[in-house]
Write a structure and sequence with these properties.
Layout: E1 4-10, H1 17-33, E2 38-40, H2 64-76, E3 79-88, E4 95-102, E5 108-113, E6 119-122, E7 126-129, E8 134-135, E9 142-145, E10 148-152, H3 161-169, E11 174-176, H4 183-201, E12 204-207, E13 211-215, E14 218-221, E15 225-227, E16 233-236, E17 242-248, H5 250-259, H6 262-265
Parallel strand pairs: 1-2, 2-3, 4-8, 10-11, 11-12
Antiparallel strand pairs: 1-17, 3-4, 4-5, 6-7, 9-10, 12-15, 13-14, 15-16
Length: about 270
C-alpha cells in the first residue's frame, strides 16, 4: 500500500440526474483541489429512486453517470470510487446496483454488484424491498487502485461481516462502503458497524453516505467518515453536502497488523 490522501463525498441525490451529477462534480473537484487522489462517492450518486417507477438502469458502456466520472478522473488525474449506479441487467426492469472503480486515466478498473439486498419491514419504522428493483450480485471484488488494495461493498453489505472477511482474504487494505443508509437505522448502527469492520479486518474504511431528505419517504443518515485500521474515526463530514479527507498511511496499517496479528491467529 502507498500513502494516499483519500476523500469521502456526501450528497443528497434525487431523481434529477443532471442536478445530482452537477452537485457530485463540484464536490469531486473540491476534494481534488484539497489534494485527494482517491475520492469515494455514495450509493446511487447519479440517480436515487424515490417513486415506484421502474428503473431498468444503464449499460456500463453507455452510462451517462459512469462516463461523467470517467471524464473527471481523467481530467483531474484522480481515482474515483463511484459508490453505485443502476446497471442494466438481463432481467429488466430489475438492474444491478453496481459500484464502479475508475482509475486516474478514466478507465473502469473493475465493478462490483451489491450482493446483499435491503428487504426489511420494521412496523412503524422503515419498510423497503430492494429486490423488487435489483438483481443481487454473487462475488466479492477487490481492486488495486491509487496504490492500495480496495475491497468493494455497498450499503446493506455492511451488516454481513463474512463478506469483509472474504475481501481481507483477497488482500484488502481499504474497505469501501458507499451507502444511502436510512436515517432510522443509521442513527443506531452506522458508525458502530463501520468501526467494527475496520477493527476486525484491520483495514481503513471509506464510508461515503447519502444525507438528508431525498423526497417521498427517502431520508438518509449522512455521517460520511474515514476510519483507520485501529477503528479510530480520522475524518467526518458534517450534516449537508460536502467532503472530508484523510491520509491513508501504510505504516499505520502495518503497525496495527504487526502489533495485533489477528489474521494469523484465525482458527476457523
Amino acid at each position: 500500500m502507498q500513502r494516499v490522501k483519500a476523500a469521502v463525498v456526501q450528497l443528497c441525490s434525487t431523481e434529477d440526474m443532471s442536478a445530482n451529477l452537477e452537485a457530485a462534480e463540484l464536490q469531486v473537484r473540491a476534494a481534488a483541489q484539497d489534494g485527494a487522489t482517491l475520492i469515494a462517492l455514495p450509493e446511487n450518486t447519479g440517480y436515487l429512486k424515490i417513486t415506484d417507477t421502474p428503473d431498468a438502469g444503464e449499460p456500463l458502456e453507455d452510462s451517462r453517470i459512469v462516463s461523467t466520472f470517467q471524464r473527471l478522473a481523467r481530467e483531474l488525474e484522480v481515482c474515483i470510487l463511484l459508490g453505485s449506479f443502476h446497471r442494466a441487467s438481463e432481467m429488466p426492469p430489475r438492474a444491478y446496483n453496481t459500484s464502479v472503480a475508475i482509475d486516474a486515466t478514466g478507465r473502469v478498473a473493475t465493478t462490483y454488484d451489491k450482493i446483499h439486498l435491503f428487504d426489511i419491514d420494521v412496523p412503524g419504522d422503515v419498510s423497503f424491498k430492494e429486490s423488487d428493483d435489483i438483481v443481487p450480485g454473487t462475488a466479492p471484488v477487490t481492486v488495486d487502485l491509487a496504490g492500495a488494495r480496495i475491497g468493494l461493498s455497498v450499503c446493506y453489505d455492511l451488516r454481513f461481516p463474512e463478506l469483509y472477511r472474504a475481501l481481507l482474504d483477497q488482500g484488502a487494505e481499504v474497505l469501501a462502503v458507499p451507502a444511502a443508509f436510512t436515517a432510522q437505522t443509521g442513527k443506531a448502527h452506522w458508525r458502530v458497524l463501520l468501526r467494527a469492520r475496520a477493527i476486525e479486518n484491520q483495514c481503513y474504511v471509506l464510508a461515503a453516505d447519502q444525507w438528508g431528505r431525498h423526497g417521498g419517504k427517502r431520508h438518509s443518515h449522512g455521517e460520511s467518515i474515514i476510519i483507520d485500521p485501529w477503528g479510530q474515526v480520522v475524518a467526518q463530514v458534517s450534516d449537508g453536502v460536502g467532503f472530508a479527507t484523510a491520509w491513508l498511511d501504510p505504516e499505520r496499517l502495518a503497525s496495527v497488523r504487526r502489533g495485533l496479528p489477528c489474521a494469523a491467529h484465525r482458527r476457523l
